[in-house]
């Protein structure tokens, strides 16, 4: 995404934001409340249209008119509310509206087998795919949302504040899950207020401030103090913008 701009009437949410993400890497998107992070991600996920800027997948320009277009290009977004059905079990949530069928009937056995396989690949400790979502912890729900997103075989997975509502231990488990997603070759975009998340799992990060993005910075090359200084300063240097 290059020089993306977006206004809502008189409010300019994004002036010029650039972001590049590569297979198997995670990029952190940092910024204050109202900085424009969600707007940027909704544009990427096809639920909002940009006003200006260039958007490319594998070097080819694309324009997403809807979330369906974005999904077809291999981009999945997990929203903060996770969009899971509390009253349904884990396996049903994996396939909401796309349940496998056999002879016209729901293939329950296959649903559970595939959900169990998906969870195991994420190192999940959810004991059974028959468990209702409502009895899972926040971290376990997040794992189900990630597992469900992976059933679409995305190339890019956007996660909006995945650890916001979690305690330290659960947040660490979700970060471990994100590592596994990266190891599958999926590119991860992580919106997070928690600097620790970015330090733990991101390869690069950008700061969005007043509708502009910073140049991407390498996370392993910086200390936590360096990064918090960048975030606190809210200063966005444009000189070394994303290639
Ligand atoms: N649909 C909308 N209509 C009008 N203004 C909007 C709309 N969506 C976002 N905005 C405005 O655009 C700006 C950026 O909002 P956005 O939600 O993208 O920020 P954010 O960085 O995700 O914030 P937070 O961390 O609080 O979620 C804000 O000023 C917000 O009020």
TrEMBL record:
GO molecular function: ATP binding; ATP hydrolysis activity
Domain ABC transporter: start-end pairs: 1-235
Keyword annotations from UniProtKB, A to Z: ATP-binding, Nucleotide-binding
InterPro entries named among the record's database cross-references: AAA+_ATPase, ABC_carbohydrate_import_ATPase, ABC_transporter-like_ATP-bd, P-loop_NTPase
Taxonomic superkingdom: Bacteria
Gene3D superfamilies noted in UniProt: P-loop containing nucleotide triphosphate hydrolases
Name of this chain's protein: Sugar ABC transporter ATP-binding protein
